[in-house]
Amino acid sequence: MESTVEQYVPSDYLPIIIQFAAALGFVIFALVATHLLGPKRKSEVKGAAWESGIESVGDARTPISYKYFMTAILFVLFDVEIIFMYPWAVNFREFGVDGFLQMFVFMGMLLAGFFYVIKKGILKWE
What we know:
Elements: H1 14-37, H2 44-47, E1 50-51, E2 54-55, H3 66-83, H4 85-90, H5 92-120
Antiparallel strand pairs: 1-2
């Protein structure tokens, strides 16, 4: 039996290189054009820091409770873990008992992490 293996030549990559060059060229063109054509007026009001149209008050270095950050990280963590359940639910029948047991272990680990977070009191606000 003779095996045929496709050989790629450099010209096969030409469309990819052209598309990459076009994208890079557009980015460079857009940056240069906006720099050259944009307004150059500088003033104290334009240079001031604004957040959503509200003038900044106070120091940006004020201490913030770590619980805000922990809540955000936990939300992202559990949200990403939930995303893994959708493909499993779509292909539930194809995975059979093995897939069910694997998801059972996954859910067990997810719940163990959740109970650990609750036990540590990270979600308790004072």
